[in-house]
């Protein structure tokens, strides 16, 4: 089955969900509504002809000012049995930053979704343990968003402030040996 | 006696292992909830080495983001470079010349050997065998010297380039590498004599950290972790890149999916890598090492200094970056740790709109609770060793 046929198959089963299908350099992306992403995932995982058993990756993309819906959550799926890859993209608008978690389908999605939550601020409902993972727990903002400054926020992170303060104290310490 | 047993109670104890701990191979922190010596709950904390490589990559041209990939998995930077340039080439729609492909395959397998050697040394060292560690570093030193001879750097090499490799290899390099390749199987026998049938080693690894094939796939494990469970998924076979479809090699797989099987798989992978290098040297075709695609590859330096047109090309490619078609690609390559994937979204400019790194170490670190919970605390060490993670790649 060719990748485009898989995309057509998804469109047949979930006609309401598929918004667009595109191909670039032989790789097919299927853009979906976010509402039934878990059902689509479950179908792709369980159907014996498709059998996408391996979730390569989940990540977010921020299309600030480029697309109507600001974020996309991108899923790369692979079927080890059939040696096929497909990319799903779920649109997430800024007004409602939630999407269903797919951890019940692929348990490996756990940390990828935590990372997307951490760096983009997209909430995954039904996720077992949604906490920040790469950034400190008390960090403010989501660094991979396009409106987040490259050099970081103007004010230092409070944990770093504490370290700086301590080093300042040590520098001022006079040594009488 | 019965009274004593009744009054002897253990309380659940929570300890923090890491971020500074010799067995965690970097800055990994595990919070372990213990009942006596049994691990009830294991919670990994990562992110201590987060440098925002994805964010940095979005603000650099495709060429100047290449050194960032060195800093992912810093003990096999050659493989990361190969993965990065392959992904960018796929996005650009160009292809490296045949000779460059063979050279890349060769150096990538050298990187695989050097990474697996470190894994072997540190893994057995954690479990208590000091000698293989010292032997392992002896062989790694040879590979590091060869890398230095090749490109001047030992660790952060940045040798492959978009469209080929930085410079052609010399005959002297090939001779030395060939001598190493002929010698290496005997060195492998040395390690195996020390470790494979060692009773202490087997006691510590057989039936420890078992994960079944279905579960391993569901967790998204790749590389030695997945093949140890008996799945023959290897990107080099499933979606060949570079010259992997022109060389012969086997994919070793395990049966049970325990630490010992993963050990056997990675040891055999080193022998196979050695085999691939040998074939690459023997089959190495003649020809250029950079693709003839002036819009996408940097011009040769000697021409830049002589010729106005090449100077302009160089200037535009360095400052503005190439003009790339709009689109998105994902490209996975097999690095020593597993599948390293790059996902690029291009908006038509010279910088990637989004650069996503799918790091195998990140996925493998997430499976630690699954391997450790229900086991003994001493097996946590074996499990950290067997997943073979590098925190630079995990935290990005």
Search tags:
heterodimer; A: 177 residues; alpha/beta; Beta Polymerase, domain 2; 5-stranded mixed sheet; two-stranded parallel sheet; B: 396 residues; alpha+beta; Cytochrome-c3 Hydrogenase, chain B; 2 domains; 3-stranded antiparallel sheet; 18 helices; 13% strand; globular
How would you characterize the overall build of this protein?
The complex is a heterodimer of chains A (177) and B (396). Chain A has helices spanning 3-13, 37-46, 109-120, 158-172; strands spanning 18-24, 27-32, 54-62, 71-79, 84-92, 98-100, 123-125. Chain A has 177 residues and is of the alpha/beta class. Chain A has a single domain, classed as NADH:ubiquinone oxidoreductase Nqo5 subunit (Beta Polymerase, domain 2). In chain A, β1 and β2 (27-32) form a beta hairpin. The N and C termini of chain A lie far apart (79 Å). The model of chain A has no long low-confidence stretch (mean pLDDT 87). In chain B, β7 and β8 form a beta hairpin. Chain B folds into two domains: 2-44, no CATH class; 45-395, Orthogonal Bundle (Cytochrome-c3 Hydrogenase, chain B), CATH 1.10.645.10. The chains are: A alpha/beta (177), B alpha+beta (396).
Strand and helix map with partners:
The complex is a heterodimer of chains A (177) and B (396).
Chain A: H1 3-13, E1 18-24, E2 27-32, H2 37-46, E3 54-62, E4 71-79, E5 84-92, E6 98-100, H3 109-120, E7 123-125, H4 158-172
Chain B: H1 2-7, E1 12-17, E2 29-35, E3 38-45, H2 53-58, H3 66-70, H4 77-92, H5 98-127, H6 131-151, E4 160-161, E5 164-165, H7 171-195, H8 199-205, H9 213-219, H10 223-227, H11 235-238, H12 259-283, H13 301-306, H14 308-319, E6 327-335, E7 338-346, E8 352-358, H15 360-366, H16 368-372, H17 377-387, H18 391-395
Antiparallel strand pairs in B: 1-2, 2-3, 4-5, 6-7, 7-8
